[in-house]
Write a structure and sequence with these properties.
The protein folds into 2 domains: 129 residues, Aspartate Aminotransferase, domain 1; 255 residues, Aspartate Aminotransferase, domain 2. Strand 5, helix 5 and strand 6 form a beta-alpha-beta unit. Helix 2 runs antiparallel to helix 10 and helix 3 crosses helix 10. The strands form 5 sheets. It has a 7-stranded mixed beta sheet with strand order 4-10-9-8-7-5-6, sandwiched between helices. Strands 13-14-17-16 form a 4-stranded antiparallel beta sheet, covered by helices on one side. By secondary structure, it is of the alpha/beta class. 39% of the residues lie in helices and 16% in strands. It is globular, with a radius of gyration of 22 Å. The protein binds 4'-deoxy-4'-aminopyridoxal-5'-phosphate (PMP). 4'-deoxy-4'-aminopyridoxal-5'-phosphate binds next to helix 4.
């Protein structure tokens, strides 16, 4: 690959050097990794932070009586502070470590939901939600007798905001929506969504799994009540994620899981619970994961999220423009408020055949329902093909991808 990618001072070729896996060959071809919405690759800096933790620090945290335990505790709590700063939280206690977005949403459904949502109450979701932001609410609704309402997705892949307004009423207790759709790439108008939810007294949760590595987020400025995201979609390890909640809300919520760490006092008759955020962190947490996530944030900050986002937007526009030149290629996202994702259909080819053909060329995309079966039903398709990019992808890679798609197209004729 040449250096024409180093546009506008964004030295993508230098950043690529940070990701050892990008040197992998697949079927003898250079790997082109266009599956970033499923999980991003990890820079050497993050990998090193894990090796360093296990080589030099490993110990269990809190109640430390020895040096290593104190060091591990301070790195783990330091990670919490870093994350709080990254999303603009008022205090680190508002950051709860979880396994990922799915666990964060389940936590809110089980605690906030079971305590404050009951019979006759309504929860608003949308047709573009990931299963992780549907199932916990369906389970809650069946436990508590609440009603779920879904905002429709329009044929261009955007949310029907007029319908959202019609669905809101004084029975709405919670709106839980994705910031960016993993299947379509649609960026939802979250400021407007949050303002309208609050105007009827509802709380709002933003599933930010697809947003947190691509759009700068300030929870205070957004005035969002809960925010959920996964480390592995932002260059950090798997098995670590975050639930942000406003302090007053988290404080009123009962614990999620029981066990060590989340208690204040235990007797055989009953127990009292720890302060925030430990109340929600039963058992030994993913200490290395939290430290790896902090390292990923350092990495992002060293480049600048705004710089990464601007480069990604330019690359996505290029990808869209090139894809549209292919005869018979249909896009499921037809508006421009989008991030990272090209959801497409190539003629009558089955998405999984397209995926297999591209894989043979070393190009990794994802095909199928993308954990969004209701959305597939809406578009009357069993699945979609999805290429998802991030800041270490290049125009050269897009060109190779497009010529592979054109080749499939030729073969279909
Ligand atoms: N929501 C969205 C929008 C996602 O893209 C994903 C992951 N594909 C999830 C939730 C679930 O995240 P995790 O599997 O890390 O819990």
């Amino acid at each position: 690959m040449n250096n024409i990618q180093s546009e506008n001072n964004f030295d993508v070729m230098r950043f690529r050097e940070d990701f050892p896996i990008l040197k992998t060959k697949i079927s003898g071809k250079d790997l082109i990794y266009f599956d970033n919405a499923a999980t991003t690759q990890k820079p050497q800096q993050v990998i090193d932070s894990l090796v360093d933790y296990y080589s030099n620090t490993n110990s269990n945290i809190h109640r430390a009586a020895h040096h290593l335990a104190e060091k591990a505790t301070s790195e783990y709590e330091g990670a919490r502070e870093k994350i709080a700063k990254y999303i603009g939280a008022t205090r680190p206690e508002e950051i709860v470590f979880v396994r990922g977005t799915s666990e964060a949403i389940n936590l809110v459904a089980r605690t906030f939901g079971d305590s404050f949502i009951g019979k006759g109450d309504e929860i608003i979701l949308s047709e573009m939600e990931h299963h992780s932001n549907i199932i916990p609410w369906q389970m809650l609704a069946s436990r508590r007798g609440a009603t779920l309402k879904y905002i429709s997705v329009k044929s261009d892949g955007s949310l029907d905001m007029e319908e959202y307004e019609r669905l809101l009423n004084k029975r709405t207790k919670l709106v839980s929506l994705t910031y960016v759709s993993n299947a379509l790439g649609t960026i939802n108008p979250v400021r407007e969504i949050i303002g309208k939810a609050h105007s009827v007294g509802a709380k709002i949760l933003l599933d930010s799994a697809q947003a947190v590595a691509h759009i700068p987020i300030d929870v205070k400025e957004l005035d969002v009540d809960f925010l959920a995201f996964s480390g592995h979609k932002m260059y950090a390890p798997t098995g670590i994620g975050v639930l942000y909640g406003k302090y007053e809300l988290l404080d009123e919520m009962p614990p999620f899981m029981g066990g060590g760490e989340m208690i204040k006092n235990v007797t055989l008759q009953g127990s009292t619970f720890n302060q925030l955020p430990f109340k929600f962190e039963a058992g030994t947490p993913n200490i290395a994961g939290a430290i790896g996530l902090a390292s990923a944030i350092d990495y992002i900050n060293s480049i600048g999220l705004e710089n990464m986002a601007a480069y990604e937007m330019g690359l996505l526009d290029y990808l869209y423009a090139k894809a549209l030149e292919i005869n018979g290629l249909e896009l499921y996202c037809k508006h421009e408020n989008r991030a990272g994702v090209l959801p497409f259909k190539l003629g009558n080819a089955h998405p999984s055949d397209v995926g297999a053909f591209l894989d043979a060329k070393g190009i990794a995309i994802r095909t199928g329902h993308h954990c969004a079966q209701p959305l597939m039903e809406k578009f009357c398709v069993p699945g979609m093909a999805r290429a998802s990019i991030c800041f270490y992808n290049t125009k050269d890679e897009v060109d190779i991808f497009i010529s592979a798609l054109s080749r499939i197209n030729e073969m279909l004729k």
